[in-house]
Every structure is written in C-alpha cells, then in structure tokens.
Amino acid sequence: MRLAIERLAVERGGRPLFSGLSFTLGPGELLVVEGRNGAGKSSLLRAIAGLLHPSEGTITIQSEAIAGRTAPQPEQGPAGPLCHYLGHLDALKPTLSLARNLRLWRHVEGAPDMTIETALEMVGLDGLGSLPAAWLSAGQKRRAALARLLLVRRPLWLLDEPTAALDIAGEALLGGLIVRHLSAGGVAIVATHQPLPIPASTTLMLGAPQR
Ligand SMILES: Nc1ncnc2c1ncn2[C@@H]1O[C@H](COP(=O)(O)OP(=O)(O)OP(=O)(O)O)[C@@H](O)[C@H]1O
C-alpha cells in the first residue's frame, strides 16, 4: 500500500497543532512519530484513521486488494477500514473473556486471517482465552490489543504508544510483529516516547523540542 499525506493541518479545540505536514510511505515502511506531550502525535494518527477531520490537506491511499476489497486507484480520504488503529485504550470489554473480546473484534473487522488461538499464541497469551479481560494485567491487556491487529489483515497499522505497559520481552514481541507486517508489504506509523527495538524508515518530530 501507499500513503501520501499532503499539507495536512490539524486543530483541536480551535487551536492549531500542526500544518503543512507532508510525507509518503510505501510498502514495508515504518514511520516513527516523536514529540513532546501535546505535540499532536495522537491527533495525527486519529486524522489518518478518520477519527478526526483535518482542517486542511489531503490523505491519499492506494491499496492492493484486501479482505475482499479492491482499490486499484488511489483513494482520497482517511484510511478507515484499511487501517488498524491502536489507541491509548486497549478496547477490551472487561466482563467478556479474552477470547470473546477477540471474537467480537474479528466479527466487526472483516474476513479473518488467523484463528484466535494462533493470535493469542503469537502474543504470548495462550491458555488465557477463557479469562475475563478485567483479570488481565496491564501488559497482558496491551498484548491482547496487539492480538487484534493479527486477526484481520489490514495494510496500515496506526499504533499510539504501543509499548505502554509492555515488558522487555513484550517490546521485542511488538518489534517482531511490526517487522512481520512490514515484510508482508504493510505500512506502520508508530507514535512513541520509547525507542522501538526495530529501525524506523523515517522519523517525524512534531512540535517544538521537549522542555
Ligand atoms: N478532545 C479534545 N478537545 C480539545 N483539545 C484536545 C482534545 N484532545 C486533545 N486535545 C489537545 O490537542 C493537543 C494534542 O493532543 P495529542 O493527544 O494529539 O498529543 P500527543 O502528542 O499525542 O501527546 P502525548 O505525548 O501526551 O500523548 C493537546 O494540547 C490536547 O490538549
């Protein structure tokens, strides 16, 4: 897939966060977004996902066929169903079991690419599927959120602070999952304050330097 951001400007609460932002990403590329608290990293990810309307600029996406959807021509507009957006919250319903949470996501997000058991195994949560999500530790919840990315293949991953609550092994696991996604021709944008265990194709610094 290819993602082109041109002259993007985003405001929150009437205050400009950034403007004139342009970049392009192609298959296998990882963009790491850095910047002080409040610089607009989450807002950028949300604008690309379509959860926030940019005040100016364009987002253009060209994707291969994915989950029964073909988009041979570049499409202007947010990524929507072409992306996985992993925000600060883990998007788990606390009273449902871990496996039922993932089944729900798999149902919502389209044609499954792998079984829930395989996804749980890949994030080191095998054997925990029957537990209520509320019983999971913070790092286990984060791993469960990562499992969601694996169930249904989507070419663009937008990950906001994905290392939050992960231990060192979890960070390495995240790095491996991103590499796997990039190797399959995917694109990833990661907003983070922590160094990732894998090299970025490009780093973008938003806002003024940290004080
Ligand atoms: N719903 C909202 N309404 C108005 N302003 C908002 C809203 N959400 C965020 N903001 C403001 O937008 C600015 C950017 O927030 P954003 O979450 O994008 O920053 P960030 O770079 O991701 O920060 P952090 O590193 O703390 O996660 C902040 O000044 C914040 O106060």
Secondary-structure element pattern, one letter each: EEEHEEEHHHEHEE
What percentage of amino acids are in beta strands? Answer: 25-35%
Average pLDDT number: 91
SS-derived structural category: alpha/beta
Keywords: ATP-binding, Cytochrome c-type biogenesis, Membrane, Nucleotide-binding, Translocase, Transport
InterPro entries: AAA+_ATPase, ABC_transporter-like_ATP-bd, ABC_transporter-like_CS, ABC_transptr_haem_export_CcmA, P-loop_NTPase
Family: Belongs to the ABC transporter superfamily.
GO molecular function, one term: ATP binding
Question: How would you characterize the overall build of this protein?
Answer:
The chain has helices at 41-49, 98-109, 116-122, 138-151, 168-183; strands at residues 2-12, 15-25, 30-34, 56-62, 75-76, 83-86, 156-160, 187-191, 202-205. By secondary structure, the protein is of the alpha/beta class. It has one domain (2-205): Rossmann fold (3-Layer(aba) Sandwich), CATH 3.40.50.300. The strands form 2 sheets. A 5-stranded parallel beta sheet has the order 6-7-8-3-9, sandwiched between helices. The radius of gyration is 17 Å and the shape is globular. The termini are far apart. The model has no long low-confidence stretch (mean pLDDT 91). The structure holds adenosine-5'-triphosphate (ATP). The site of adenosine-5'-triphosphate has 11 residues, from helix 1. This is Heme exporter protein A. InterPro entries: AAA+_ATPase, ABC_transporter-like_ATP-bd, ABC_transporter-like_CS, ABC_transptr_haem_export_CcmA, P-loop_NTPase.
